[in-house]
Amino acid sequence: MPEFARFRELFAHPWPIIGMISLPPLPGSPNTPGMDTLLAAALADLAALERGGAAAVLIENDFDQPQTLTVGPEVVAALTLITREVVARASVPVGIQVLLNDWRASLAIARMTGARFVRLDFFVDRVRIKAGEIFPEPEAITAYCETIGATHVALLTDLQVKYSELLESGKTLAESARQAAAAGATAVVVTGDATGVPVAAADLRAARIGGVPVVIGSGLTPENAPVLLPFADGAIVGTALRSGNGPLDRVDEARVRRLVEVCRAATHNPLA
Questions:
Q1: Element (H or E) spanning 158, and its range?
Q2: What whole-number distance in Å separates Cα of residue 163 and Cα of residue 167?
């Protein structure tokens, strides 16, 4: 399976933990601490994640608490600068996600900074979120990758993502997984109902129907990891690795190490 080979090449660990770098509010948002603090926070998280054994890092602007689907030029500029600095110092792959749904910005930043993957909350599902209705645009996304020379950037795409209402009656998670794989997803991401809520093992099993790697997108902890490991190929982890829930709280190296050790101790290797 070519996407499994690509996933394995990108994430060298047998069962990769992708640790989130959740940035404090960026320029243009209330209470932004300024670029020096933002960059220091990103690099501190990178160091803690690498020392703890994370296989990759994912930069996100979630503490902007964005209410629109696309962001302003000040956010793109700040994220480009921060991502470039993280990539320059990282020994692991770096990814980027520009929230709420600015896939053009995510892909452009990845292309210009050397980031190797993006996470896209919305790819093949028609959903409604607080900001409005979102229509799937997989063809436009892949065409844009071609246009800017970003076909090498891996696409980690969510299925029926948390905090959204699916507007396609009767559509199953397995159907979403098949569509995402056919549309060019490198891997699919499965979440619980909200941030920090564990994903159901049944949903992970359904997502495997697509035939591409399956990534846990919320709620993984050392306690539930042994139960969920057999049904997925990696995980994106944010909340469980942080010292607290505030915008200036940073990644806790000890929490990273504990989760990584649990995953490495598992006897099941889904990519073997």
A1: strand 154-158
A2: 13
pLDDT of 93-140, one tens digit each? Answer: 999 999 999 999 999 999 999 999 999 999 999 999 988 899 999 999
If 0-12 CB within 10 Å is exposed, 13-18 middle and 19+ buried, where does residue 159 land? buried
CA–CA separation, 106 vs 79, rounded Å?
9
Q: 91: helix, coil or strand?
A: coil
- Give the residue extent of every domain in the chain: 2-265
Residue 1: per-residue pLDDT: 63
* Nearest Cα residue to 51 out of 79, 84, 7, 17: 17
d(CA 96, CA 83): 8
What's the number of CA atoms in the CB half-sphere (13 Å) around residue 241? 30
What kind of fold does domain 2-265 have according to CATH?
TIM Barrel (3.20.20)
Banded pLDDT at 195 (limits 50, 70, 90): confident
Amino acid at site 175: E
Find all residues with CB under 8 Å of 142, minimum gap 6, and list them: 183, 184
Distances (CA, A) of 198 to 93, 195, 242: 25, 8, 16
Closest among 143, 172, 137 to 157, alpha carbons compared: 137
The tokens of 13 are what?
């660990």
The residue count for the chain? 272
Ramachandran assignment for 5, one of left (phi > 0), alpha (psi -120 to 50 degrees), beta (any other): alpha
Quick one: which H or E segment has residue 43?
A: helix 35-52
- At 272 the pLDDT is 37
- Residue of 21, 83, 78 lying closest to 52 (CA atoms): 21
